[in-house]
Amino acid sequence: MVRELFNSIAERYDLVNRLTTLGLDRRWRKKACEMALGHLTVERPKILDVACGTGDMIMCMKKGLEKRNTAAEFYGLDCSEKMLEIAREKVPFAELKAGNAEEIPFPSESFDLVSVAFGLRNFSDRERSIKEIHRVLKDNGLLLILEFSRNEGFLGKLAWAYTKTVVPFIGGLLTGNREAYNHLWRSIGAFPSPEELSEEFQEFGFERLLLRWCFPRIAFVMVLRKV
Ligand SMILES: C[S@@+](CC[C@H](N)C(=O)[O-])C[C@H]1O[C@@H](n2cnc3c(N)ncnc32)[C@H](O)[C@@H]1O
Questions:
Q1: How far is CA 65 from CA 43, 59, 61, 180, in A?
Q2: Spans of all domains in the chain
């Protein structure tokens, strides 16, 4: 179901993101990359972006590493062929595979960094995906999570109302699939808080290095380490 949903909106996915977040999604990815790359100490890291979509996170990571004069090997995984088609044009330097986060098609202990941006919430079996990410990470490898979450407080409530009304309206208008953008707020509503999520990760062998909210407190960045 999730694969079909993203196949149906792939062509306009980036445009809807830019418009509905007023370009903030780029800043969130940049902040997330900077936070993870700041903890990366290896020379030529191998990086896997799970649920890579159209490749924005890979692009952002590449730019961040170029600033640090560091070369890297980039890999991406996504279950939607249509999202991957777009990614192949945007990030031709990355090795992109179609596949499921619950069965990551890479050998154990392959990567120094795994990232998941706005993907975790969509996984049908989160526990299995987390175990798989743990398996493919090298010892002490890093996991970067960028995800939406509901938040209390004025800004959080405003952002939530916006996500439930304006986003499905614009998303529906541009992609013809309003239901896909209703799925967005429903999945955010059903998703654990960052604190609950970080406890879940600890159960599966991760330690949390940092947790930061992104303006306007509807998205958060979490960096964890495999222990
Ligand atoms: C909201 S998009 C995020 C895309 C990208 N990471 C970004 O930052 O824009 C979620 C992506 O997760 C992918 N996805 C959802 N469930 C998946 C799974 N179980 N395995 C692999 N990819 C999955 C979808 O196909 C979609 O491309």
A1: 11, 10, 6, 33
A2: 23-151+193-226
Q: Whose CA is nearest to atom 15 of ligand 1?
A: 122
pTM of this prediction exceeds 0.70: yes
Interacting residues of 69 by C-beta distance below 8 A, sequence separation 6+: none
The strand pair at 46-50 and 73-78 is best described as parallel
CATH T-level assignment (fold) for domain 23-151+193-226 = Rossmann fold (3.40.50)
pLDDT (tens digit, 9 = 90+) per residue, 59-78? Answer: 999 999 999 999 999 999 99
Calculate how far, in angstroms, residue 79's C-alpha sits from the geometric centre of ligand 1. Answer: 7
Instruction: With a cut of 70, list the residues of the chain below it in pLDDT.
Output: none
Residue from 12, 81, 118 whose mutation best tests the ligand 1 pocket (most atoms within 8 A of CB): 118
